[in-house]
Amino acid sequence: MSFHNLGLSKPLLDALAAKDYSQATPIQTQAIPTVLTGRDLLGIAQTGTGKTAAFMLPSLDRLAAAGNIPRPGQIRMLVLAPTRELASQIAASAETYGRFMRLSVGVIFGGVPNSKSLRTVSRGLDVLVATPGRLLDLIDQRALSLRDLEILVLDEADQMLDLGFIHALKRIVALVPAKRQTLFFSATMPKAIKGLADKYLTNPAEVAVTPVAKTADRVAQQVVMVNQPEKTALLTLLIQSETDLERTLVFSRTKHGADKIVRLLAAAGIASNAIHGNKSQAQRERAIGEFRSGAVQVLIATDIAARGIDIPGVSHVINYDLPEVPEQYVHRIGRTARAGAEGQAIAFCSPEERGLLRDIERLTRLKIDVAPLPESFVQAAAALKRLKPAPKEAERPQRGQRHGIKADRRADGQRREHRNDRQRHPHRADGHPGHRSAAQDGNGQRRDDARNDRTRSSYRPEAYREADAGTRMPRPANGDLRSEGGQPKRKFHGRRGRPGGAQRRAGSPA
Fold it and tell me: How many separate helices (H) and strands (E) can be counted in the chain?
């Protein structure tokens, strides 16, 4: 169905025409007219079907029609997303759709300075896309209020529960006005989300365009049985042998495993990047940017990239490790075959993961075809095992070693511990001639070391300390050294106006 038949305003239709969007998807066809009426909505649709436009287009239309101006520190529409990448993508879509409307859009999430988030919300926003953690931080700082909220959207609500955001969601919902429009959207709808929707939605309209946990129809799926230690060799052979490979997204179960795969691929001459929760926001944005532009064709990711990230041209999704939650498999392979394209999903299954494979097939009600190992895989795997993994980008600092502070850097930016010559400062005792002691010669060598007879030198200033006690002159009994040329032992009288110190005159009052 055309967007012109859904009741959207002209500014939105002009923005869609600028993006060459003319036909609405099934979820958009059913959701947009319902949201325009102001009714709560519970939407279920498989990933890659256009859920973002399904709730953003009618919400922007309602905000523009109301004509309210947000006050400082207030927002009119809040979209909660589970990950930073998804929040950033939703905000970009909102700016694209509302380019011909006078609506302000902002996004806040962790990994960026708090001052930047404060500036984003200080003047008030029509649309704010946020992750729950950073949103509550700003609320606790009294920099943001939800009293004027008109529309609340929870995108990928099931993943929020998986990531432990249930308590944050309860706090946020308790702060929003009771009179509001609430929209729930997700690719799957487990019983926990169903119960949450029944609690927070008021007489909602339900939209379900596909069965729950149904995989994308245009994705060709297959599984390869392989031992866990040989998975990296199989991944390397597949990347090197595939001719129609454009962009490959590889999912690892752990963050450490993702970094290890990157190093092993680098040893085989394959460039790749990793994205996971331990990466900084700048590193994550750079990795996605290089993958989106095609500069790097392989991206290794954990499940933070399994939801909502829309990267065109992903031809292959490889499950290096099968997910422990079978619903995650649906989201992972949904990163390919987007916008009407075809895609391939390949899963590596070790003997220990056969139970996870059965759970996935039971959920999707689909028997995944088993593909054989490549020819001469044993010989190729043995050769790849002999390759030495690339070194880590940055080693952890040793105990007691400080990193990342200004005192550890020289004026030219080079770290002090990374000097090549390892020379000491030229004005120290072993460098500058004026600072050498009498026990050193012109080359900085101790004079005692230059003597062949190994006898004690008179140039040593500490030689008198090592002299025999019998050769020293006896100390006078009265302690007066003036006759011998020394200084007399003076009495301590204390500070002015106060009694003397420990050494008092005999018979003086205490």
Answer: 16, 14
